[in-house]
Every structure is written in structure tokens, then in C-alpha cells.
Task: structure prediction
Amino acid sequence: MTKEIAVSGSRPTGFIHLGNYLGAIRNYVKMQDNFSCYFFIADYHSLTTHYEAQNLPQLTREVLATYLACGLDPQKCVIYIQSEIPQIPELYLLFNMLAYKGELEKVPTFKDKVRSQEQSGRSISAGLLTYPVLMAVDIIVHRATKVPVGKDQEAHLEIARNLANRFNYQFQTTLFPEPYGYNDGSDLFKVPSLDGSGKMSKSATNPNSAIYLMDDDTTIRKKVMKAKTDAGPTESNQTKPEEIQNLFDLMQLVSSSEIVQHYETQYNNCNIRYGDLKKQLAEDMVQLVAPIRNNIHDLMKNEEYLKKVVRDGAEQARQSADATLQAAKKAIGIHYF
Ligand code: ADP
Ligand code: TRP
Result:
């Protein structure tokens, strides 16, 4: 039986954090045994917001080392850097002819970025507007149907489906299947920040709001202990305010169900001590992060190996991408002699 195809990528815009790991990369690792997987580093995408990326080589190597440190195996999946696949920008050009300005302007992530860039006096580039077109192409260039990502990517996936269908309709073909988000059979989710609101993110202004996979044990403990809490519940079974719910959500992701249940019961009985909860949460995060961090450090020293992984990966990704690009050009009518 042929395996379903999965694609996903992360932007090299900073250290990978627990949101990236729990929301996406952990699923990449699980999927490599059962799907035909392509995982890449979205360096072109990082230029839409980080054009002055002097750190791009270092950040790109770090994301690569992180993928491998988390358990991606180049024998089981194809690992590559987006910009090393020239078929991607070529297909992106063709899809830019199909994408509507109006639909791109409505994407919530675009609106958010416009707001923050305008506040800091920066212009909005065409590349930022067409970010979802490039992302759609990343996926459909391998004719993938499964995309392991966090909840923040849902609007982008909708655009990808629309563009795939629009191409098929326009050129009377069935070349592109519809891609959907994937989280091991469950809904996509968001890992909360330690700030009390919003998602854990690389670009957060408060560096204490995210736990990075490169954080040492002391830093992890300090960040968790600083997380916002309230004065505690005053009535049994009280609804939790956002900052408390976030701590429970994080605990749900990294701790055992017995531990979560223990603190849920304490909260509902109004005898919870947030200090104890945070200590436990920090220890469970340390258990998860420490081995990955040590692997990243080891892999970063082995530049030859990193280079080989992406050289081999790019070769395989180019083959798959080229077959799709040639079929797409043919469907459009770009084949003259
Ligand atoms: P960031 O948003 O931190 O800059 P990326 O855009 O590179 O990170 O995202 C890489 C992957 O991690 C994507 O699949 C994205 O959906 C996922 N992701 C990022 N932040 C979170 C989060 N807080 N919760 C769940 N998934 C997340
Ligand atoms: N937009 C994604 C993010 O910000 C990164 C990304 C680029 C991606 N191309 C992709 C994710 C293709 C999945 C598939 O996280």
C-alpha cells in the first residue's frame, strides 16, 4: 500500500520552543514510521519578517540539529532546506497567478503582522502578503495530504486547500489533493505562553514566556516559577482564569495524568499551592527538554553530518518536487515543443 504523504516545516527565526515541539515536531517524529514524510526548514518564509537575517546560517543549522535531536531519522523521512529546492519558487510563481489579493489580506496572521509592522514603522512586503501561497506550495509540491502543525496554521491550510482546488478546477486536472492539519487523530492545538495569555512563540517580547529546547535546567525552573498566577480559588470547582488554565494545559502536555489529576483536585477543593504545581511542572519540563538539549549540543558539533543530511534530503525532495512541477506546467499548457 502506498503511504499518505506528509509535509511540514519550521521557520529559522529563533530557538525552537516547547510550543513548536509539542504542537508540531513531536508529531513529525511519530509520523515518520507511517507516512511518506518531508520535513524542511522554511528559510524563505523567515525572510518575510526577518529580512535582516544575518543569523540565518546559524539559525538554520540549529533548527536542523533540533529536528534530528528530537528524533527525526534521515533514513525514515526526507529532511531539507526550503531554498535548496528551486522547484518551490517556480511553482510559487505559478500559484501567485491563482491567489487573490482579497483572500490573502483576510488571513488573520497577515492582519496581525501588518498591525505590528505598521506600529514599528515598517512597510508591508508583497512577500508577507503571499506567505500563505508559498506555504501552500511547500505542501502541494509533494502532493501531500497531511500537515502536522499547531492550531495557528489553520487559516494557512485553508488557503492551501482553496489554491489546490482552484488549480484543479481551472486546469481540469486532479493533480493536487487537499491538505489538512494533522495531530495524531486529534484536533490541532495551541501551546500557551507562560505570560498568562497568548501562544508560546519565538518572537514574544518577553523572553520568559517561552521554554526553549536549548534552555538549561536552571533557566527552565526560573521561567516556570515566574509564570503569572492569581490569589487562588475561593469557591470549589471555580472556573480557572486564563493564566491558571494555561499552567494546567502545559501540565497536561508534559506531566503524567495522575499528577494533573492531583492538582485538579487540589484546585477544585481550594487547597492548591501554586508554588508546588510550578515546581512539579518545571521538573517535568526539565525531564523532557534535557535529553533533547544535550542531543542538540552534540549534533551542532558535527557539521559534516548535518551537511550530509540536508544534501541527501534536498536531492530526494527535488525529485518529488520536479515531478509535480512538470505535471503542473503541463496542465497549465507550458510545454511548447
Ligand atoms: P513561531 O510561531 O514560534 O515563530 P514557527 O512559525 O516556525 O514558530 O512554527 C513552527 C511550527 O510550530 C508550526 O507548525 C506552528 O504551528 C507550531 N507552533 C508554533 N508555536 C506553537 C504553539 N504555541 N502551540 C502549538 N504549535 C505551535
Ligand atoms: N507557516 C509555518 C509557521 O509559521 C511554517 C511553514 C512554512 C509550514 N511552510 C510550511 C508549515 C508548510 C507546514 C507546511 O509555522
